[in-house]
Amino acid sequence: MSSVKTAARDSVSRETVASDFGARAFQAFSLYQGSAGLGKVTWKQVGEWVADLIVDTDPFDQSTVGKWMKGGSLPDAHVILALGRLFGVSPGWLAFGEGKPGFASLSPDDEADIMRRAASAAQQARAAQGAANTAKQAQPETPRPKRKRG
After folding, report:
1. pLDDT value of position 9
2. Can you give the pLDDT at residue 142?
3. CA distances in angstroms from 7 to 18, 49, 68, 74, 136, listed in the order given
4. Region 24-44: what's the mean pLDDT?
5. Residue 148: inside a domain, yes or no?
6. What is the DSSP track for 5-42?
7. Is 143 inside a domain boundary?
């Protein structure tokens, strides 16, 4: 299989993973928003709340949070864990769709396993995107026909 086809396949996989994550994250957000009686909540507020749960992190801007929630990108593992805590859902369900969305207390080993797997998924997604970009740049441009003057 050519590198262009492989990069395209990997890119689709990355998009699918991010899209599935976004759908679950939005579902969790909607449940959280309704159960907490918060009314209208902005992505900017979610970014600030997530950052409050992570030591030494600046708030995430609304476009970044919007990309996560709409399936446009996959956050890092520590952010997935913080989102799970914020929304009251299992990070395993949020990251991978495993089990039920309800939050269960995690053992340190389970939490470490989810962090490792989410970090690996995010790294693979970045590598696939990089390969797709490299393949796209490596494609030769089709020369334009010369115009006849005259």
Report:
1. 41
2. 62
3. 16, 35, 22, 18, 9
4. 79
5. no
6. HHHHHHHHHHHHHHHHHHHHHHHHHHHHHHHHT--S--
7. no
Asked if residue 101 belongs to a domain, the reply is yes
Confidence label for 38 from pLDDT (cuts 50, 70 and 90): confident
Total structural domains in the chain? Answer: 1
Amino acid at 53: L
Q: Of 93, 146, 85, 81, which Cα lies nearest the Cα of 119? A: 81
**Domain housing 100:** 3-131
Tally of helices (H runs) and strands (E runs) in the chain: 6, 0
Taking a C-beta distance cutoff of 8 angstroms, is the pair 25, 84 a contact?
no
More confident residue, 78 or 5: 78
Residue 52 is encoded by which pair of tokens?
A: 């409050």
SS3 label, residue 88: coil
Return the percentage of the chain with pLDDT > 70, whole number. 65
pLDDT of residue 31: 80
Chain length of the chain = 150
State the residue for tokens 């690996």. 120
Q: Is residue 136 part of a domain?
A: no
Average pLDDT on 101-108 reads 64
| Distances 2 to 5, 6, 31, 139 between C-alpha atoms, Å | 5, 6, 44, 12
Residue 89's φ and ψ, nearest 5 degrees, are: -125, 160
